[in-house]
Here is the input.
Amino acid sequence: MKRILFVVLVLAIALTPIFAGGKAEKASDQKTVTVFGAFVDEEARRFEEAIRPFEERTGIKVVYEGSKDFETLISVRVEGGNAPDIAGLPQPGLMHNFAAKDKLVPVWSSLNALLDKNYAPVWRDLGSYNGTTYGIFHRVNAKSFVWYPKKAWAAAGYVPPKTWDELNRLMDRMVANGHTPWAVGIEAGGATGWVGTDWIEDIMLRTAGPDAYDKWVSNELAFNSPEVKAAFEVLGKIWMDPRYVYGGKNYILTTSFGDAQQPLFDNPPKAWMHRQGNFITGFFPDDIQDNLEEEVGVFALPGINSAYGIPILGGGDQFVVFNDRPEVREFMEYLATWESGKLWAQAGGALFPYLDQDLNAYPNEIERSLAEALVDAKVFRFDASDLMPAQVGAGTFWSGIVDWVGGKSLDAVLNDIQRSWPK
Amino acid sequence: MADSKKLREGSFAGNTLVAVGRIGISIFVPLVAFVILWAGFIFLKESKAPPALIAIVAIIWGVGGVALLFGVADWFVNRLPLHVTKKLQPFVFVGPALAILAWYLFFPTLRSLYLSFFDAQSKNFVGLANYIYAFTDPKMLESFVNNLLWIILGTGGSVGMGLIIALLADRSRYEKVYKSIVFTPMAISFVGAGVIWRFIYAYKPAGESQIGLLNAIVTFFGVEPQAWITLRPWNNVFLIAILIWLQTGYAMVIISAALKGVPSQIIEAGRIDGATELRVIRSIIIPYIFTTLVTVSTTIIIISLKIFDIVYTMTGGQYGTEVIASMQYKQMFNFYDFGKGSAIAIVLVLAVTPVMWYNLRQFNKQEGF
Here is the structure.
C-alpha cells in the first residue's frame, strides 16, 4: 500500500511541471488554420506558395494537408470528430452530404459580399445547398480541351479541327499516316473512371445540350435514356477502335490519368492528341513545361450540334468551413479574392474564376486563353459526376465507364447506373 | 471494571478512528489516481507542447495509467472484507479486457445493427431495405461470388501449398532454409504486398519496355502483353495469388509443426506393410494432422472473408473484383450511406461468426486456449 501511494505521489510530482509547461506554451501559441484538400505534390506546393502573402500579412499559420484518398478520408475525419478547419471539396455532392448533416458553417455576411462582387452567379449556385451558401471557389478548372504536340503537328501538316466532322477526318488522316490519334488513361486508384465521365459529359453538352445536361444531372433524364446512350456511342466510336487509341482498351484502363499524356511527347509521338483539363500542363515532362508555348498546342473540343456552340465543362474545389473561428473566417475571405490566386496563376497550372482577375498574370498565352474562355464562356457547366449523388458520381458512373471499356454491354452498364441512383 | 470499561471505550474510539481513516484512505487514493489520469488526459488532448514531449507523456500516461488503475483497483478490493474480495478480485483482472472488448467491439456492432435499419443519413427507418439491397444488388452479388472464390482458391491454395511445402521440406536436408524463404512474405503487410504485386502485374503497350515482371516474361516468349488486373474473371485469381503468396508461410509453419508430431512408428509400420509414399501421406499423415488442417483452413477462411487491403490497393474493386468488405467501405466512406454500409458489415459479421465459432472450438479441442 505504502509503495503504491509512493508511486502515486512520485507520478503526481513528476507530471505537475509538464501540465504547467503545457499551459504556459498554449497562451503564447500562434493562430493556426488547418486546410485539408484533394490536391497533392506540386499542386499542393503551389497552393501553399499562393497563400504565403496571407500568412505574412496576418501572422496566421495555414497548414495545408492533401491526400489522394481525400474523398474517403474527409468523411472519416468529419465523422470521427476530427474535421479540419477548412476543406477543399472537389465535389459539390460531398458538400451537400456535409450540409445535410449540419456539419458546415454557412457563409457569413462579409464573405457573402465578396462572393457577390468577385464571382459570376454560377459559382454561388454551385456552392449552395437548399438555398444556403457554404462553399467558396478558389482554383477552378476547365476540361474541354485537346492538347497536342505543336512541332510534330506542324511537321505533319495537321491543323486544329473546328467541328466534330473535321475532327473525325483528322483522326482518319492520322490513321492513314500510320499515326495513333488519341492517348487516353483513366486509372486513378479508388477514383478510376473519372476521365471517362468527363468525356461523356463533354459529349452530352455537345449532343444533347445544356438543358438536357441539367436534367441528366438531376436524373429527370434517366441514365439509360437515348440521349445518354447516344453520348456513349459517340465516345465508343473513338475509344473502342484500337486504331484511334494508343494501346487500345488495356492502355485506357491501366494508365494513370496523369501519365496518359506521355506518348504525345515521345519522338516521334506515339499518340497525337490528349483531351484533358488545364491542370494537365503540370503533368507534362519538365522540358515540355519549360517551353510550353513552343511545344504544346491546345484547342477546345469541337462542338457536335452547332446549336450549342462550343460548351465549356469545368470543375473546382470549393472551400467549406467546419470550425468557426475568427482566423478561419479571415482566411476564407482571403480565398474569395483574386489576391489569393494571383501567385498560383503566375506559377501556372491553375485557372481562377474571379471577375476582377488580371489575365496578364498567367504565365503563357495558353493559360491566358483558357482563363479568358472560362470567364467568357456562354455555356459553362460543372462536372456532372461531381454534381450527381456520390453513389453515382463517385461510384457507379466511374465503375460503369470501367465496366463498359472492359467489355460489358452498354445497355447493361446504363441500366446498372440508373438503378443505383438513390431514390 | 471501570478501568476495563475505559479501555473498551478507548479502543472503541480508536477503532472508529481507524475505520474512518480506512474509509477515508479508500476514497482518497482512487480519487488521487483519477485526478492524475484525468489531468494526463486533458494534457494529451489540449496541450500544444512539442510533439516529442507529448509522445513521452503519452507513453508514461498510457502504460503507467494502466498499471495505476490496476494497482489501485487491486489495492482497493484487497481492503474489503475477505468474502467480498474473493468475489470481486477476478473482475479486477478480467474487467479491463471485458470493458475494452465491449467498448470497441460489442457496442459498435450493436450500433451497426441499429444503423442498418435506417437510411443513408441515419434519419428515417427503412426496415429491411438495406438488407434487400445487400442480397440483390448486382455489385453485391458479384462480391459474394468473388468472396466465395477467395475462400475456395485462397484457402485451398494456401493450405494446399503449405501442406506440400511442409511435406517436402520435412524430407529435405535444407528444411530450415526452404521454410524461412516461404515464410518471409508473412512479414509483409497486405497493403505492402499489394504495392509490390502492382509492379508484377504492371502493363505497358506492346513495343514499350515492360516494367511489369509478368509481362516482361510473357513478351520474352513472344506473347502480347496483358493488362492482368483487368482480365475478367482471371483477375480475381491474380489477386488471390497474392493472398496465397502471403499465407502459405503461415499454413506451412503450423502444418510442419504438426507433421513433427506424427509418430514415426506408424509411418514405418505403413511402409513395412508396403504402402507407397502417397498412400502413407493420404492414409496416415493427413488423418493424423486433420485437426491442424481444419484450424489453419478456418483461420485463412476468415482472412479471405474479410479480405479488403489487397483488392483496395490493386483494383479499388474495379474490373469485377469487388468483395464484400470493399463494398462496405465504399458505401460507408465514399457514398456516405451509413444504412447500406452497416447492413453489409452485419452480413459480413454473420458470415464470419460460424467460421470463427468453429475455429475457436477447434482451438479449444487442442487446448490452445
In short: The CA atoms of residues 9 and 322 of chain A lie 42 Å apart.
